[in-house]
């Protein structure tokens, strides 16, 4: 809930007129008001004493003037008079203004990018809330003497060191508020409050709660005492004589001199006393007694955030998490277009300004504390408060306090962090490890992009035996460093506690709600045909900078250039990106995932059985949960909120455990078969042209069949449209020749059929069902060239409706393969990745469907090892569909963590020899032509020539290359065949010739 807590903290001066920054005498405003609750009206008299020798402008906007007198003389004004300008003579002038205000509209709450802010005033029989514009005001600051006449039963609160109350003859109550300090303006709140009082070290503490919440008073008073005691110890004496916690019927979160005004829904939250209350109390020092000189930027919110919200987390050992959240928020919301230096921050207006003025500023104070030390830091803050009490202070005054206390020139620090924009991006280059005797030396270069900033960079070397920490000073684009340590280093980590304000590296940056709403280009996507249902939600999202798309209109470029919000995990688009999501018992679900196409982008999935305004209402609440990746709501309440895991710090691996095997524990195929006999699916990977891998597959199949006759086989080598052809062969309905021809094996797979023949003959003998797992080549080829969204409606019927593109580790491995592929230049990697996932998903879905058709069977799946390594290809996708246990067996791979369950190392085996004509053939127009000969070709020696068209071999007519391959499959060494060809002649035309070839 930290997003909500930050939004509650808004110091009073954000709503006040521009301050006077000098120390010259200020006006004194003697203000007296009474109320007509039924008419929502206020009637008042303001007597303003104006010091001489200065021009004053008295603002009368929104006020009905009844009369104006200057030094007792009536000043003529009209109904359109908005400002009175006066220049007092030798001494001073007294301006007496009698006025009236009747409120015609209710206060407006900002529920969008600036929650916790209420615009306007309220007067009615339930209470009074007056924030601004309810009395004649003088530009700059004034001292106020304020008197209010209230109905019986009402309690009133305003800025005051002393409050006196007396009953009047007509049953009303007269409140007099004394506050000797100049301020930009005052506020007033009144209601039928129950008031409780206590004290802490000479400070009177009050709780003004509505009668239904009176039970909260004691808790709030006790926490207030604790906070005042804590901050008096840290930064000096509480600056006023009283403090009040006041409940408001409006959803506010304000801090004013001597009191805080918290909304009714806020005070009822159990965690507010542990968080926001302390923040508002600390504002009594920062902003409410040490004023902010806005000409050089508002430092108050950052300092208060650091010593309140951040400090509370730090005391719980979670300071590093809070600082990381600051950086996540900055990186999510702040772009080069909306960035600005801290000297330009005056107040929070949206998420980006909050990330700068609250978050970055808090980090500036953290870096100051880290640099000068904790004792010196608090000494400097105390000095700053003492010297600037009830004065206007700037960042420069903070710099002076720290320079004076520490004796150091800090101009560079404030120039760099307060006057500069952005955040540095830091990385590690050329990390290496060397041993020098018993010492280990870790060398690396710290690299920063952008300006050359001076940074004190914490560095940690993680050892097998513990860790070593040092601070490395960097001040240019690249800084080389070396750390010597005892022990055995594993990893080098920069800034794992987030002590330096910076941009997070990719693996430190989780997929959060803030990244979706902070993206400069974002879209929302309606389910097909449901535009009206989401009209209210669309209106809200458009106000947040989203543009809308219909599901059927979404194109690759939309996802490549934008973050996206998709309504419905059951939509075809969501399922094609992240697989099918299981429905949960909830009212509203919000999940953020990495965008597979846009670097740094995210895609959110919204699920809800609700419609219309209900969904819009939940979307508006999402802003309070910006740091999370996943949310669930039930019966209007949040029941789950989680943030995806991300790496802590910028890290580089120095050394890894060397994998190995204990030779006495080597296992053979029989052992493996026994270990996996209980697994529902056994995957056995291959390099397609290595016969020893296929022999392993055959032997594992045979061993498992001995243990369980209910076996099915899945094979990548055959495509789903040819399942019937495969079934006919396995059942014995057709012979091998017809099977090979009808399955188009040689055209669609191409590898020597003898590699797989043993497996298929075994399956045919024992009538073991075999699944054609693969998808049509034509579909995969089109996706690899044009992407998934290029498929026609008919083509989409052939592909899985749910696919998961979110395995980023798999994507990284494929990108490395793609980069070194000789044909990758000029191709689109995203399309290549889609094609690979489509290939995997199709085989996983086909396997799942086949197993449903054969319940109670164990599956042996024979595919290329790339579809199995680390489980990323088929295994995890099939598990997503059916939840069945599986094991992965690979051949001849590197032994890496989690690559497989078993790794076999078979000796090379030559496949069964099949005679070859040793020719290069081309098939066109129903003819098979010889294009070239292989070295030592038996065909060339027999007299065949390039350009010959093969008509037949023995009694077999040849019209396709696979006719010839099927014929040769049944020949052996020593056999002689007759080859009939058609040969073109230059003058006499084509002629048929026959040749005898002996293998």
Describe the structure.
The protein folds into six domains: 2-282, Sandwich (Immunoglobulin-like), CATH 2.60.40.1730; 291-417, Neutral Protease Domain 2 (Neutral Protease, domain 2); 425-506, Sandwich (Immunoglobulin-like); 511-642, Chitobiase, domain 2, CATH 3.30.379; 673-904, Rossmann fold (3-Layer(aba) Sandwich), CATH 3.40.50.11550; 919-998, Pdz3 Domain (Roll), CATH 2.30.42. It has 28 helices and 51 strands. The strands form eleven sheets. An eight-stranded mixed beta sheet has the order 6-5-8-3-2-14-17-16, with no helix packed on it. The longest helix has 25 residues, at 829-853. The termini are far apart. The radius of gyration is 39 Å and the shape is elongated. Helix 4 crosses helix 5 and helix 8 (374-388) crosses helix 9. The model is unreliable at 1-21 (pLDDT under 50). It has 999 residues and is of the alpha+beta class.
CATH-assigned homologous superfamily of the largest domain: tricorn interacting facor f3 domain
Main CATH class of the largest domain:
Mainly Beta
The beta-strand count equals 51
Structural classification: alpha+beta
Rg measurement, Å: 39 Å
Question: Hey, roughly how much beta strand do the residues contain?
Answer: 25-35%
What are its keywords?
999 residues; alpha+beta; Immunoglobulin-like; Neutral Protease, domain 2; 6 domains; eight-stranded mixed sheet; seven-stranded mixed sheet; elongated; disordered N terminus
In terms of topology, how is this protein built?
Layout: H1 2-7, E1 10-11, E2 28-36, E3 41-51, E4 56-59, E5 64-70, E6 73-74, E7 83-86, E8 92-102, E9 108-110, E10 117-119, E11 122-124, E12 127-130, E13 137-138, E14 142-150, E15 155-158, E16 162-167, E17 173-183, E18 188-191, E19 193-200, E20 203-210, H2 217-235, E21 242-248, E22 253-256, E23 259-263, H3 264-267, H4 276-282, E24 291-292, H5 300-315, H6 319-333, H7 351-372, H8 374-388, E25 392-393, H9 395-406, H10 411-417, E26 425-436, E27 439-449, E28 455-463, E29 466-474, E30 478-485, E31 489-494, H11 513-518, E32 522-526, H12 535-543, E33 546-550, H13 556-561, E34 563-567, H14 572-578, E35 588-594, E36 602-607, H15 613-621, E37 630-634, E38 637-642, E39 650-653, H16 669-676, E40 681-686, H17 691-707, E41 711-719, H18 723-731, H19 736-742, H20 745-748, H21 754-766, E42 770-774, H22 777-786, H23 793-796, H24 808-820, H25 829-853, E43 858-864, H26 875-882, E44 886-891, E45 902-904, E46 919-924, E47 927-933, H27 938-942, E48 949-953, E49 956-957, H28 961-969, E50 976-983, E51 991-998
Parallel strand pairs: 1-22, 2-14, 20-21, 21-23, 24-25, 32-33, 32-34, 34-36, 40-43, 40-44, 41-42, 41-43, 44-45
Antiparallel strand pairs: 2-3, 3-8, 4-7, 4-13, 5-6, 5-8, 9-10, 11-12, 12-18, 14-17, 15-18, 16-17, 19-20, 22-23, 26-27, 27-30, 28-29, 28-31, 31-39, 35-36, 35-37, 37-38, 46-47, 47-48, 48-49, 48-50, 50-51
Helix pairs in contact: 2-4, 4-5, 5-6, 5-7, 6-7, 7-8, 8-9, 12-15, 16-17, 17-21, 18-19, 22-25, 25-26
């Amino acid at each position: 809930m930290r997003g909500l807590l930050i939004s509650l903290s808004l110091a009073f001066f954000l709503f006040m007129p521009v301050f006077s920054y000098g120390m010259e005498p200020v006006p004194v405003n003697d203000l007296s008001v009474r109320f007509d609750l039924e008419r929502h009206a206020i009637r008042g008299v303001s007597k303003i004493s104006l010091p001489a020798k200065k021009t004053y402008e008295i603002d009368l906007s929104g006020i009905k003037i009844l009369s104006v007198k200057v030094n007792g003389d009536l000043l003529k004004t009209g109904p359109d008079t908005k400002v009175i300008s006066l220049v007092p003579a030798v001494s001073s002038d007294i301006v007496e203004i009698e006025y009236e205000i009747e409120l015609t509209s209710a206060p407006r709450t900002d529920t969008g990018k600036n929650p916790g802010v209420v615009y306007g005033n309220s007067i009615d029989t339930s209470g009074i809330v007056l924030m601004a514009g309810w009395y004649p005001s003088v530009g700059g600051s004034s001292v106020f003497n304020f008197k209010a006449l209230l109905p019986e039963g009402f309690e009133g609160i305003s800025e005051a060191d002393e409050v006196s109350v007396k009953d009047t003859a007509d049953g009303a109550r007269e409140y007099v508020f004394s506050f000797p300090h100049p301020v930009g303006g005052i506020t007033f709140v009144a209601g039928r409050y129950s008031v409780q009082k206590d004290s802490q070290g000479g400070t009177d503490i009050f709780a003004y709660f509505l009668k239904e919440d009176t039970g909260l008073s004691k808790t709030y008073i006790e926490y207030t005492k604790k906070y005042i005691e804590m901050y008096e110890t840290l930064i000096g004496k509480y600056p006023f004589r009283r403090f009040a916690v006041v409940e408001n019927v409006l959803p506010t979160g304000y801090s004013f001199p001597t009191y805080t005004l918290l909304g009714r829904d806020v005070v009822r939250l159990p965690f507010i006393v542990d968080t926001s209350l302390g923040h508002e109390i600390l504002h009594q020092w920062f902003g409410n007694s040490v004023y902010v000189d806005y000409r050089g930027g508002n430092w108050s919110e950052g300092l208060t955030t650091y010593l309140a919200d951040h400090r509370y987390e730090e005391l719980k050992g979670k300071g590093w998490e809070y600082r990381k959240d600051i950086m996540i928020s900055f990186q999510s919301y702040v772009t080069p277009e909306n960035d600005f230096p801290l000297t330009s921050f005056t107040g929070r207006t949206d998420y980006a300004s909050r990330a700068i003025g609250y978050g970055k500023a808090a980090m500036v104070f953290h870096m100051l504390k880290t640099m000068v030390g904790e004792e010196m830091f608090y000494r400097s803050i105390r000095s700053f408060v003492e010297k600037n009490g009830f004065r206007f202070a700037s960042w420069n005054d903070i710099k002076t306090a720290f320079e004076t206390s520490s004796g150091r020139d800090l101009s560079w620090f404030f120039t760099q962090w307060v006057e500069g924009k952005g955040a540095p991006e830091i990385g590690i280059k050329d990390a290496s490890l060397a041993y020098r005797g018993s010492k280990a030396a870790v060398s690396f270069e710290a690299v920063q992009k952008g300006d050359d900033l001076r940074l004190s960079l914490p560095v940690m070397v993680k050892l097998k035996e513990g860790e070593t920490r040092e601070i490395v000073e960097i001040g240019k684009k690249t800084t080389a460093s070396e750390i010597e340590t005892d022990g055995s280093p594993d990893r080098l980590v920069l800034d794992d506690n987030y002590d330096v304000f910076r941009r997070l590296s990719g693996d430190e940056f989780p997929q959060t709600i803030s990244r979706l709403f902070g993206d400069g280009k974002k879209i929302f996507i309606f389910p097909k045909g449901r535009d009206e249902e989401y009209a209210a939600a669309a209106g809200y999202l458009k106000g947040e900078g989203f543009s809308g798309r219909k599901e059927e209109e979404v194109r690759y470029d939309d996802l490549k250039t934008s973050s996206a919000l998709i309504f419905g995990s059951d939509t075809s688009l969501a399922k094609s990106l992240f697989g099918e999501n299981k429905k949960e018992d909830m009212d509203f679900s919000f999940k953020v995932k990495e965008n597979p196409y846009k670097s740094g982008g995210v895609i959110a999935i919204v699920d809800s059985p609700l419609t219309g305004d209900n969904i819009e209402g939940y979307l508006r609440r999402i802003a309070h949960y910006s740091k999370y990746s996943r949310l669930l709501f039930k019966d209007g309440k949040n029941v789950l909120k989680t943030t995806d895991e991300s790496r802590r710090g910028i890290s580089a691996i120095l050394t890894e455990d060397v994998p190995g095997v204990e030779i006495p524990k080597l296992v053979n195929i029989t052992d493996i078969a026994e270990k996996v006999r209980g697994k529902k699916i056994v995957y056995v990977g291959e390099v397609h042209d290595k016969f020893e891998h296929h022999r392993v597959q055959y032997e594992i199949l045979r061993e498992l069949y001995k243990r369980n006759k209910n076996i099915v086989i899945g094979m990548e080598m055959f495509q789903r449209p040819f399942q019937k052809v495969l079934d006919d062969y396995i059942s014995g309905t057709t012979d091998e020749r017809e099977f090979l021809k009808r399955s188009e094996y040689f055209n669609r797979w191409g590898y020597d059929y003898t590699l797989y023949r043993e497996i298929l003959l075994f399956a045919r003998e024992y009538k073991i069902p075999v699944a054609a797992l693969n998808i049509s080549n034509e579909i995969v080829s089109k996706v690899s060239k044009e992407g998934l969204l290029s498929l026609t409606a008919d083509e989409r019927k052939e592909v899985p409706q749910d696919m998961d593109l979110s395995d980023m580790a798999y994507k990284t491995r494929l990108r490395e393969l793609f980069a070194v592929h000789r044909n990758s230049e000029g191709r689109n990697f995203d399309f290549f990745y889609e094609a690979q996932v489509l290939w995997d998903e199709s085989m996983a879905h086909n396997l799942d469907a086949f197993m449903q058709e054969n319940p109670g069977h164990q599956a042996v799946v024979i595919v290329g090892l790339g579809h199995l390594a680390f489980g990323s290809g088929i295994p995890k996708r099939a598990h997503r569909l059916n939840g069945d246990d599986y094991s992965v067996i690979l051949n001849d791979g590197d032994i890496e963590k989690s690559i497989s369950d078993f790794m076999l190392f078979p000796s090379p085996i030559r496949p069964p020899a099949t005679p070859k004509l040793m020719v290069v053939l081309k098939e066109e127009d129903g003819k098979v032509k010889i294009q070239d000969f292989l070295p030592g070709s038996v065909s060339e020696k027999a007299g065949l020539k390039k350009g010959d068209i093969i008509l037949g071999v023995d009694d077999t007519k040849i019209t396709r290359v696979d006719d010839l391959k099927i014929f040769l499959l049944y020949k052996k060494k020593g056999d002689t065949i007759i080859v009939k060809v058609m040969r073109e002649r230059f003058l006499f035309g084509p002629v048929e010739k026959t040749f005898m070839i002996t293998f």
